[in-house]
């Protein structure tokens, strides 16, 4: 079974991933990544790659994976 996601749903998921990445903090309170780094990492993920993981990973989980790269 293949799930189809609308461009709007993909954009919203990407927005939520970005938001979680920007809010993620190190134990000392500093952000893991700045806005430029977040955008660079998100650009490495195509819409196809995001939609593959959308049924299995929350935006927060995807953000964590991208931060750990």
Descriptive report:
- Helices cover about 60% and strands about 0% of the residues.
- It is an all-alpha fold and about 70 residues long.
- Helix 1 runs antiparallel to helix 2 and helix 1 (about 5-25) packs across helix 4 (about 60-65).
- The longest helix has 17 residues, at about 5-25.
| Poorly predicted sequence stretches spanning 5 or more consecutive residues | none
Number of strands: 0
Based on CA atoms alone, the radius of gyration comes out at 12 Å
Structural class call reads mainly alpha
Report the helical percentage: 55-70%
Terminal residue distance: 30 Å
Taken in chain order, the helices and strands follow as HHHH
Short description:
The chain is an all-alpha fold. The protein is 61% helix and 0% strand. The N and C termini lie far apart (30 Å).
Key terms:
69 residues; mainly alpha; 4 helices; elongated
Give the secondary structure arrangement, pairings included.
Layout: H1 7-23, H2 35-43, H3 47-53, H4 59-67
């Amino acid at each position: 079974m293949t799930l189809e996601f609308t461009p709007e749903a993909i954009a919203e998921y990407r927005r939520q991933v970005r938001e979680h990445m920007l809010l993620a903090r190190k134990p000392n309170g500093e952000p893991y990544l700045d806005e430029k780094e977040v955008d660079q990492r998100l650009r490495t993920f195509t819409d196809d790659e995001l939609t593959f993981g959308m049924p299995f990973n929350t935006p927060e989980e995807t953000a964590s994976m991208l931060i750990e790269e």
